[in-house]
TrEMBL record:
<keyword id="KW-0732">Signal</keyword>
<dbReference type="InterPro" id="IPR008220">
    <property type="entry name" value="HAT_MetX-like"/>
</dbReference>
<feature type="signal peptide">
    <location>
        <begin position="1"/>
        <end position="23"/>
    </location>
</feature>
<feature type="compositionally biased region" description="Polar residues">
    <location>
        <begin position="199"/>
        <end position="209"/>
    </location>
</feature>
<dbReference type="GO" id="GO:0016747">
    <property type="term" value="F:acyltransferase activity, transferring groups other than amino-acyl groups"/>
</dbReference>
<feature type="region of interest" description="Disordered">
    <location>
        <begin position="188"/>
        <end position="224"/>
    </location>
</feature>
<protein>
    <submittedName>
        <fullName>Uncharacterized protein</fullName>
    </submittedName>
</protein>
<dbReference type="InterPro" id="IPR029058">
    <property type="entry name" value="AB_hydrolase_fold"/>
</dbReference>
Amino acid sequence: PPFPISLLPQALTFAALFPDAVGRVAAVCGAARASNYNKVFLHSLRTVLTADPLWSQADQRFHGTPQTGLRSLGAVWAGWGLSEDFYRQEEFLQTDVGDFQSLEDFVDRGYVASFVGDEAHNLLAMLSTWYDSDIAHAFNGSLEQALGAIQAQVLLMPCNTDRYFSVAHSTAEAELIPRAVLAPIPSTWGHRAGDPSRPGQQGQSNFINKQVRGLLGNEKGKGK
């Protein structure tokens, strides 16, 4: 079965398949399967990318580098990766975030620029794998059986403003994992809160590090 990759925590899959070998799991801004809402987002990204004139529907590939499609993909992604609160409060203009001069400047340099150099077919492969990712594939389609097979201490850390993987989604999954603890990241950075490598994200980094240190130092676990 396809393993959840990238933004979906692979560790949950390994913990379900090899319960005796995995002792702890810290899943940051992820889920055990792509939700229907998540799939709508992924479908929109694929549609935008393959709308580029260099895409061949017959060959199912690009004939050249689809610069228009890549730029469009980045622009759409910018509306999903961060929360409405982040944009409403104009946090992109804060000096600790960067030297962005406007909303348009942030979208262009903060998102679009990171996609224009990507290999488009790799992106399509990522979107397809993400779309089909489901921990239940190896358990006859049963999410309950898959998550119930996990014996590890599991720390689920969704961001409270993540549009990909919501706190509600993580809460529902936590109820099915025998030894799960839910610790939402309080942040307006949406899904990006789970990758606190950018300027202005020290608070998210500190929160995640503290939670992970607690998980690693908790030999017996607290259960739910």
